[in-house]
Amino acid sequence: MSDIPHTAIEAIRAAGRRMDSLGWVPATAGNISVRLPGDRVAITRSGFHKGFIPEDGVMAVDLDGRPEDGSLRPSAETGLHCGIYRRFPKAGAALHGHSVPATVLSRLAGNSISLAGYELLKAFPGLPTHEAAIQLPIFDNDQDIRRLQTRVTQAWDAAPDAPPGYLIRGHGLYVWADDMPGAIMRLEALEFMLACELETRRLRP
Ligand SMILES: CSC[C@@H](O)[C@@H](O)C(=O)COP(=O)(O)O
Ligand SMILES: [Zn+2]
């Protein structure tokens, strides 16, 4: 029997249903986590559909991604979640999805996408008005998650004010916040702005 708090498991399952309802976790795409007390992380097990996460579809790992129960396989991208929690002590929840706008735009753009002039920018820290911009970093995809996390960490070192999210090219979006409601809010804000960017490029290539 897992000793992961029921509230953490249910927050993860509800986030999966929400992301699925918006079409952001096709097939078995996406992964979801929350920080637990004691340097632990509750994270989705690998390979489940995130719209239908079973009660035992969440497991615990340490901040280096090591499973507490070695018989269970955590998300293939556990290293990226743990990288977020190690780097940002206030981060309490992290979400990853594979939406069409995130996937398409990350293939069209260079090493970042500028989001400017959107009212929804106010969902991000330190942006009290729409008269602001964020540079959402884009990293080339890599099946070697440790290597990918090294590049993400290097980018954070180079730009300490980077927003609490990034794209992986041809793959999807990562976003985090202090807690799960905050992470969902930021995910929805980013996805909205990315959808607007995609639509703008379609109308005004
Ligand atoms: C449907 S393949 C997607 C995976 O390779 C991965 O990118 C993903 O988001 C889900 O992997 P998972 O191991 O279930 O967390
Ligand atoms: Zn993924």
From TrEMBL:
Q: What is the cofactor note?
A: Binds 1 zinc ion per subunit.
Q: In which residues is Zn(2+) bound?
A: H96, H98
The annotated pathway is: Amino-acid biosynthesis; L-methionine biosynthesis via salvage pathway; L-methionine from S-methyl-5-thio-alpha-D-ribose 1-phosphate: step 2/6
Q: Name one Pfam family in it.
A: Aldolase_II
Q: Which cofactor does it need?
A: Zn(2+)
EC number(s): the record gives 4.2.1.109
Q: Which GO terms describe its molecular function?
A: methylthioribulose 1-phosphate dehydratase activity
Q: Which residues form the Class II aldolase/adducin N-terminal domain?
A: 10-198
Q: Which family does it belong to?
A: Belongs to the aldolase class II family. MtnB subfamily.
What biological function has been recorded for the protein in this entry? Answer: Catalyzes the dehydration of methylthioribulose-1-phosphate (MTRu-1-P) into 2,3-diketo-5-methylthiopentyl-1-phosphate (DK-MTP-1-P).
What is the protein name for this chain? Methylthioribulose-1-phosphate dehydratase
This chain's source organism reads: Roseococcus pinisoli
